[in-house]
Amino acid sequence: MNGTLALEDLLVLILASLVPALIFLSWIRTSERYRQTSWGTVLSLFAFGAVVATIVAGILEVVLVDAGNAASKSYPAPEFSFLKGNSTAGTFFLVLVIAPFVEEGLKAVGVARYRDRIGSVADGPVFGASVGLGFGFFETFLYGLGAFLVGGLVAGLTLIFIRSISSVLLHGSSTAMFGYGFAASKVEGRSGASGGYYLLAVAMHSSFNVLASLGSVALALGYSGQVGNYADALGLVLAVVFAIAAINHVVTVIHQSTFPSAGGAPARYRPPTIARRPPPGATQGNR
């Protein structure tokens, strides 16, 4: 039964998508125990991910798929079937290659845009997670809206809940790792860190998409629909576990970057001890 969109339903879908993302954002921000990034900065980064990165990524992906379809007509050989957006190979190419590179690239632009506000290595993963969580929020809302229009409010909210503990966390985690590399390059001068951690973000994104698509992979390999259903369920569980483990790793990275001598333990910051000058007339032998 198709859902009829009303203002109340729209607000419910927006809040259901937004609130978990903001809770995760607050958690990441407070993980930086010393000199936390201001709310103004993290919310600006969040907004960039939600509005700019998500919309531009959608446009670019459509353009690239159309370009691939056009190219496939010029190169109809089987080895170029991945260029056809409506083919099985084309769908996997979009999900596993195009989307990770495009989306992580645009989220990385959001981090780089605020480079002047990065004062420490720990700021990097916080900035990256802020952009990624914003991206994940708006993408999840759009998916939830689509599910609502097809199956009603329960279907929309169910999909939003599942994506909030999987895709949203993945987007935050992958871009946080790019942010770490970008900050390490800026603050510590690590050559190649930005590019290397961008590729790590793409690999994380692509790996997550593989897990989330296990059912489709099974069907593409010729397995029965029942096997595909089991693979879907297994893939969902693994994707959630992957996303939760990734975001916890990000928190560890933030702790270690803030307190490197503590090995990641959230220790209390202590300012350096200032030696007191001896009082006038005191000698080295006085204690």
How would you describe this protein?
There is one protein chain. The chain has 287 residues and is mostly helical. It has one domain. The termini are far apart.
Please describe the structure with a list of short key phrases separated by commas or semicolons.
mainly alpha
* Count of discrete alpha- or pi-helical segments spanning 4 or more residues: 9
Q: Give the end-to-end Cα distance, rounded to a whole number of Å.
A: 85 Å
Beta content: under 5%
| Structural Rg | 23 Å
Order of helices and strands: HHHHHHHHH
Would you tell me the structural class of the helices and strands? mainly alpha
The total beta strand count reads 0
Low-confidence stretches: 262-276, 282-287
Q: What is the molecular shape?
A: globular
Q: Average pLDDT value? A: 87
Give a quick account of the main beta sheet: strands, pairing sense, barrel closure. Answer: none
Number of domains: 1
The helical percent reads over 70%
